[in-house]
Amino acid sequence: QPTECFLSQPEEKQESTVKAKRRKKKKISDVLQKSAPKPAVPADLQNLLTQHFGENRSVIEIEELKLSDSCFLPANDLTHSFSSYLKEICPKWAKLRRKHQEKRSVVMLVLCSSALRSLELIKSMAAFKGDCRVIKLFAKHIKIKEQMNMLEKGVFHIGVGTPGRVKALVEQDALCLNSTKYMILDWNWRDQKLRRMMDIPEIKKETIDLLEKSIIKLCRDGSVKLGLF
Questions:
Q1: Which helix (H) or strand (E) holds 123?
Q2: Which of 13, 107, 133, 197 could join 113 via S-S bond, C-beta 3.0 to 4.6 A?
Q3: Total structural domains in the chain?
Q4: Considering the domain boundaries, does residue 7 fall inside one?
Q5: Rounded CA gap, 211 and 120, in Å?
C-alpha cells in the first residue's frame, strides 16, 4: 500500500510541471503587448536584412545590400494619418502625378500585410491621392491575369498590395519599377494578434525577396526612396 502511495505522488508532480511548462510558452503577441510602439528608423530595416542574410552571405554580398540613410524618406513618428504622412514625404505629388503617363508602372508602391489592410490604406489616403488612379495589388478575390491586363491597358499612379503579389507581377514583367519613385512599407501597423508585417514569417520573407531582387538596387541608384509608415 505505501508503495502505491509513493508512486502516485511523482506522477502528479510530473503532470503539474508539464502544465506549468505549457503555460510558460510565450506567444509573439504576449511579447509585443509588453513592448510600447516605437517609430521605425532606417536601422530597423537594415538590421532585419543583415540578420536574414548574415549566415548565408559573404561580407561583400551583405555590403551590397546595405542602404545609406539617404535612401530613406522621413519615417512616420506615429503622429501621422496615412494621408498626412504622404503629403509630408511627397510635397511635389501633383506634379509627379501629371507627368506620369507610363503603363505597367506606378509612381508609388505601398506594401502591407494583407488585402484587408490594403483596402484600409486606400481609404485612408483619400485626402492625399486626389483624382489619381490606384490599383489593388493583392491576391484575395483578384486574379493575377486581371491585374496584368489592367496594368497593360491603363495608367496607374499608386499601387497598394501585398509583397507576394507585387513580387509575382514584377517577376512576370507585368509591373515595371523604372517609374517608381516611392516605396512605402506599412511598418508600424499591428494586426489583431499585435503582429507587424515583419513579424509574419511569410510576409517578411516575400518583402525581403522583393527588396533584394528589385528594390535595393533602385534605392542605391537613387531612383527609389523608401518610407517606413
A1: helix 115-124
A2: 197
A3: 1
A4: no
A5: 23
Convert the pLDDT of each residue in 110-140 to its tens digit.
Answer: 999 999 999 999 999 999 998 899 999 999 8
Length of the chain: 229
Are the beta carbons of 186 and 124 closer than 8 angstroms? Answer: no
Give the residue among 175, 183, 188, 219 at the shortest CA–CA distance from 38: 188
Residue 78 lies in a domain: yes
Q: Domain of 150? A: 37-228
Distance CA 21, CA 28 (A): 17
Cα–Cα–Cα angle for 19, 25, 26, nearest 5°? 145
Cell of 108: 508609388
pLDDT digits (tens, 9 = 90+) for 98-107: 999 999 999 9
Structural domain includes residue 3: no
Q: What is the pLDDT of residues 53-82, one digit of tens each?
A: 877 888 888 888 889 999 999 999 889 999
Specify the 3-state DSSP secondary structure of 125: coil
153: domain CATH number is 3.40.50.300
pTM recorded for the entire structure: 0.83
- Average of per-residue pLDDT values in the chain: 88
Nearby residues of 109 by Cβ (< 8 Å), 6 or more positions away: 158, 159, 166, 177, 180, 182, 183, 184
Q: Where are the beta strands (DSSP E) in 9-77?
A: none
138 in a structural domain: yes
